[in-house]
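for ur thesis appendix - 4-alpha-glucanotransferase. copy paste whatever u need, i formatted it the way the template wanted (i think)
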Amino acid sequence: MLPHNMTQIRVLRLNNQENLDRTLFRLEQGFQLQFRLGPSLQGRKVSLHTDYPAPGEGFERNSFRVLDWVNPTGRATVWDQFCCLDLQLAGSFHFHYSLGDGGRCGGGYLVVDPVLRVGPGDQVLPLDCITIQTYLAKCLGTLDQWPRRLQVAKETGYNMVHFTPLQTLGESRSCYSLADQLTFNPEFSPEGRSYGWKDVGQLVEKMKREWNMLSITDVVYNHTADHPECGYNLVNSPHLRPSWVLDRALTHLSVSMASGRYVDKGLPADVTGEAHITVNVKNTVERFRALLDKDTKPDHNKSGGKGLKIIQDPSYRRYGNTVDMDSALETFVPQSSAPQHIQDCCDSLKQRLNEVNGQQYHIVHQHQEQAANCIVGTVVYERLADHGYFTFPCKEEEVLTLDQELQLLEDPSRACHFLAHNGWVMGDDPLRNFAEPGSSVYLRRELVCWGDSVKLRYGSGPLDCPYLWSHMQQYTETTARLFHGVRLDNCHSTPIHVAETMLAAARAVRPDLYVIAELFTGSEQLDNVFVNRLGISSLVREAMSAADSHEEGRLVYRYGGQPVGAFVQPSLRPLVPSIAHAMFLDITHDNQCPIQLRSVLDALPSAAVVSMACCATGSTRGYDELVPHQISVVTEERVYPSWQPAALPSSPGETCPETGITAGKRALNLLHQDLAARGFIQVYVDQVDADIVAVTRKIEEVVFEARMVERHAGSYKRDDNVINGMPEYTVEIKEHLALEDSTLVKPGVVTSKGRSEFIQEITFQKLTPGSAIAFRVSLDPRAQQVVGVLRFYLTQFSPKLMSQLTLSDLNILLYMVPGWEKFRYAGLQGLISVLAEIRPNNDLGHPVCGNLRQGDWLLDYVSNRLVQREGPLAQVGQWLASMCGYLKLVPRYLIPCYFDAILVGAFVQEGSSLVRLLALGSVQMCGVGRFPALPPLSSTLQDVPYRLGPITGQKEQCCVSLAAGLPHFSSGIFRCWGRDSFIALRGLINIILAFAGTLRHGLIPNLLGEGRAARYNCRDAVWWWLQCVQDYVTQVPQGLDILLCPVSRMYPTDDCEPCSPGEDQPLHDVIQEALQRHLQGISFRERGAGPQIDRMMRDEGFNVVVAVDPKTGFVTGGNRFNCGTWMDKMGESVEEFISYSKWNQNIQQAFETSFWVSGEADDPSETRPDLVHKHHIYKDSVGASSAWCDYQLRPNFTIAMVVAPELFDLDHAWKALEVTEKKLLGTLGMKTLDPDDMVYCGNYDNALDNDNYNLAKGFNYHQGPKLGEEEYQSTVRLVKHFLSRHYTHLERSPWKGLPELTNEDGQFCPFSCETQAWSVATIMEVLYDL
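the 3d part is after this line
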């Protein structure tokens, strides 16, 4: 759907104190990663560090660089700035970030996939295309014989071979017990020839170029068959001595039992493992008594005052633990030096030591019980269980006595040769080294021991064992030079810091190294730790872990792919956590043979299910040839058969297409590769019944049908020299058949599910156990054509059509009036908000997706509501109708994803993302309804829009009006409010002039009511209107011209009825009248006063009084029963005529002395010090009817700071803002009252009376005193950090707006408008000022 050449961009948001070390983020080379700041970090100084190298530089682990912040808008915004990485290098990369100069406050890892290439042209092999086969290297014969044996993988359709280690093996002959990591196994050289690594490299390159096959091999880091100096021995690891003693005792016990002496002799009675972790009580008490006899005093600096301290013997000798005598002398103090008191004290110490030893006995007893359980489990597995190992019998040999062996502990030259075996521990913490001090794994016999190898002791770094680190790095680099990838053997038991270092060295040799690993951590999060730190490309997953076909189908769905009908994802989208890429194997070389566990007929169906997984898949040599037993990595010494296409099925040393399921596996492998290469990543798994699984990968023929059949080729007989399979079974396969030619199924009737969805029924005829059939399914030809048309128009869509829309058109297109129960808007935004939640998660079960699949109502609705409009809106409607017309012709399951692709679009192209969201928020509020919301403007004005009224059919003005908020004030007489409009509006000329035409009593209306139902009960609306006129004059080019615009007065006199447009007057005369009436004094009673206009108002509240104090210039008025301002106070009125300059001078002189509350006892300006309860604030009013209201802390003074900063003393202003920030600043806005106030209530429960004005601190200064640069930058950062919360709310809100108010702590208020005009507008003003 999207152009293939578009750069894929992922965005990762960073949040404070977020540790992502256990979260997996997978990316591909060629992707761009953008780090952006989350809400908790926006506006703060953040440093981002990464070890991803700069362009042209090589990777160095733990070498970090600081990334630069980029601002794409070129403005000083923080909401779109990002740090960028263009990913061109594979591997694991760490990032972390910090605040200022502080420590880390978050971090994580990125895993970038390698790019694998095959063939002479180096074609890319996607990871999901991989089909791998494992070979036990020792079963390949000499190197010159390898090509014939490896050709089996090529002819079976595999494109990658996994070799077990090619190095010299240890005495056990296990494929993973390496005697020398650097030497090519001499067994691979025939007599008279010496092959080496160079020859291996030539074969690997030949397979890549000529066979299109890549090669990987194992790296084994955690154990070896040699190099005892690098292991855990009884000299460098004395904590293992108790385990060794138990081990030797059990060895003697085993020998005794095997020789029949158990009954007569029993177990050695003097073997006490506790002796290594207990205290010799007798000797300790005697030492203590000797000190008391000498009157020795404790050294308190050494004892620490924490009671009796037992010191563990670092060499773990028998009874070697000691007591810190300073702590003993401090803890057990005799009453005097008398012998009896000393004896009492010694007895107390003895009692305490016996208690300590008892505790140790109890711990060791638990260890012994666990050891016994583990020993029994080992015996059952090795000698009794059907699936067990069946090891060699115990024999009595020439061994030392136990006492003689114990004496060896004291001889370091011999004790250093007693080494700890490697193995693995069921359920253990894989991040802990079980051989290090503090672990009891060896003592408790919890280790599943590999007796042919010892565990390597790397220490914490190369300095702890330089030879070992150097040796293994050379081993790693040699492997990386020869092979295209590595398999980390026993990754969960490999010290992770070792694997990190080695893989970094390997990638320095081969940057696109493919790394796979087996992990048995039992936790996806722990898996992620290894994947993240090591950069693992694929994790081995086993189909044999599934108990039945249903579970196997679940694994197919789990390990990759998207649901059928998934949404088209944009090229720029959030980076979301991933699961590790899987290498899904039908069998691994460690698994038991499925023929033994299940049935031979299970082989082909299980392989078919695995091959349909949208990930790497594979198998182990022998599975396809139906070898009926596990090919042991330890005991198997026979060789694999060679490829011979003309061989007989019964030929044990040769493999042909008819051998086992070879032909079927080839078809499955090629199908798997084809699906992945063509990008079919959608997967659907259907459990048809208990025995049949159907897997769909979105791609009218039968690709192939295959079933296992018996043949007369003799029964299986194990060959002594060659690993042979069961000759009595083969695969009957047919490929590329017409449906009617199939022998397994027959076509049934074709039924129609809709206009373009046809169902072909099929009837199973010979789908016998062991069968697999693959259908290639395609859309109906007409539907294919329609999909092609849809894709063409979606990629060719031009934004020119949208650019012709006016803001009011966009309001209709996107928002209009909420009309559905589940959608916030009847316009497209209602759907877009919901689809934005559905798309990232492919939530195809959402009710909206269900509605789209069920019928065409929603498709018709989005276009029909627009085609009836005029102009560009009708054109948009026609385009949508055309697209939805095509959409109706595709299968219903595809409609949700294509419907989403049609609707997704950006309507604001410029500015930061926060600006875009706010701009869309402004479009919500500006619109034209069915009825005019504004009174008529002067007929002499130019460019006034007209229309034929949809109700009257008459020509009428259709000016854009501004809704106060949604959903409560969307339409009708309650849509427009004076105060709300002009707080939210900076200079929409028609609205300024419309309200000017309704001036009455020197006031503009609070509730406009289309002018005819206006209410003049608001003192401050006229001042917001005047501020808006001033903004227009100062910010719009030729803004002064507005003062000359004609205003048609609806109320030429205060007492007249509403008039039609008639005689005009210039706007400046209307302004003069408003100011003059204030100086003269305003006093009237609202018309129609009574419950018919406001049933909640007291009668006195309908009386409106406004005046100007001649001494201070302050506007006063109102009473306690009405709402003259949005937070009203009452003052007195005195009539006097003064000039504007005098009025300004009075305000300037009186403001600080009247409003500043210093809190100082001798402040001469303070008239009511008894009411002061907050210092360093500005009063909310002066001369209120209730004097205490003057001293309430409210946010109103911050508004005055914005519009008239010259009134404020700078020092006072900073102090007041600090108090306000501490007391009033909330989640999205300001508290309307100090929480310390006795009448404070943080939860609002009345829908209309008390709106919360969302101020963004008001720190930005238009003019007035200049801030210092440091103060300015600090303030700007604080403002930006606060605004990040609004950004987050806008992104997440389905209303795509900011609320009118919230309850305390930012909680949702059900009585608030979900999106409010002034909330959006004031944030836009802050951004404009920034």
